[in-house]
Amino acid sequence: MSTAYVIVTIAAAAAALIASGVDVFRAQWVRDNMRRYGIPDWTLYPLAVIKAAGALGLLVGLAIPPLGLAAAICLVLYFLGAIITIIRAGGYRDLGYPMPYLGLAAASLALFVAS
Prior knowledge:
Layout: H1 3-24, H2 28-37, H3 44-60, H4 65-89, H5 98-114
């Protein structure tokens, strides 16, 4: 396990936990964006749980590698889904929000595969 993998994975987990916290606290800007994308407010909590589970999976994956691999794949798919949802809704100016999270999750996955 490389140092880069550990650092990027911890950063990806922290970012996913922060994104999850934003959903839990139901920030007004997040609710406004979700409505523009056609997604109901009630989905914020389930989406927060998915992100938090992915973050915890990344961290546990440092000790149990198959779990980290699964978590990284799931977070990449989650944030790809977020990008697709934004594009379908025409919210192109909001694409910058999920991109860093996708980048960190993808980097964690790539470093796992490379190691």
